[in-house]
Every structure is written in structure tokens, then in C-alpha cells.
Amino acid sequence: MNDQYRDEDYPGAYPEQNYDGYDGDHYAEDGGYPQDYGYEEPPVEEPATERPEPKIELVDEDGIRAFELATLGWLVGFVALLPFWGLLNDRGWTWWIWTCLAAFGIGAIGIELTRRRKMRRLRAEGLQL
After folding, report:
1. Which domain does 72 fall in, by range?
2. How many domains does the chain have?
């Protein structure tokens, strides 16, 4: 082991500390603190009343709205990247544009599939729209 960074006067151990952490750290015999810190008794908490569980309705149980918004987002991304075609082509990043276009196409298919699934479910329940 190389001792080039070791202090010459460092003995390798810490000196004994004459500290008694418990000296004076006790409660008085009368049950209070040895000194008055100005604290009052903590307030008594009242028991919480039971609240009824709120009834939460699903906004879109079929997921059609989610597919529509996501597909619209990919279309917006495609249109937003079109003006930068030259810059993206120079750097080899045209895959961004094609990714947006492919995701838009897959999203359009997803919209149609979720609409068909909803119609099948409604027919099975006898609630044809």
C-alpha cells in the first residue's frame, strides 16, 4: 500500500472522546421535561368521519377517443416536420417523418378496429345504435 497521501501526524485512530451523551438527558421525576421549552400539549385529533366513496364514471370505456387523439397527434407531427424535410434529409433523420406517417396509419387502423369492437359489444348487449 502506498502511503504517499497519508498524514505523518495521523496515528490511524481517533482519540478517545470524553462525552457522555446521557448526562442530563433524562426526564424529571414529576413527568415533565427538565426545562420548559414553551411547547403546549399537542391538540387532540378528532376521529375522521367516514366519507362515501365517490362514484367515478369512465370517460371513454372503449378507447376510441384515445386512439383518435393519439392518431391526430402523429398527423400533426408529420405535418410539422414536412417543412424541415431538407434539414432532416441532410442529417439522415428523415425516419422521423416516416415514423409519424406510419404511426398515423396504424392509428387509423386502430380507430376502425375499436369502433368495430364497440359495435359488436353493443349488438351483443342488444343496444344497437
Report:
1. 64-125
2. 1
